[in-house]
Design a protein that fits this description.
26% strand; four-stranded antiparallel β-sheet; 240 residues; alpha/beta; Rossmann fold
Amino acid sequence: MKERVIELNHIIKTYGNVKAVDGISFQVYQGEVIGIIGANGAGKSTTLEIMMGLRKPDSGYVKVLDMDIKDASDEIKQKIGIQLQQTALYDRIKVKEALELFRSYYDKKRDLKEIIDTLGLEPYLNKYVKNLSGGWQQRTSLALALVNDPEIIFLDEPTTGLDPQARLELWACINKYRAEGKTIILSTHYMDEAQRHCDRIAIIKKGKLVSCDKPKRLIDSLGNREGTLEDVYLQYAVEL
């Protein structure tokens, strides 16, 4: 039995009259790739941010690496890597400067040259991050999430806006770290990516967890041998 690295127990997060997260519970195990899918506004990003320690739930509890996130937020942040859709950086910061700055925040540090080589960033080290194409900005953002050699990597829609080739290349990089046994939790709107790369899929609809299972089991639940995760998404995640 693999070690449980994240546990959410009946998490609730409310903004005004809206329950962004409404009683979500599930577990993540070491070495898994978990995909979180759902329509815009379903609560995916809020759920991720609660797991990362960026937002506090109104009720329920979250354990990460067997530590309560309320009591050990700083310690947990040393052991996780976060790639957000938009990483806020100084306007006049170069790729190498950003990597060295982020690396300085952590006690544990991964070899920077290895990260640069893996992600192909060498030709871009002296370029301003804001001037990079979307694909290279995403690679830089992933590199920033890896500088502390995290045990858990969070990716919030990592390939959104990228062309098919850039998506494939970024996934090749992500899968290298997956092969090391890293736990990866990501949100995505690309069902083909989720079906191909994720061990389990958590479906969130209106703040509630509809299901969390292997892609094949979710597809089989439709009773359609020719079905895809796109069909699962339309069946379970979309308000028709």
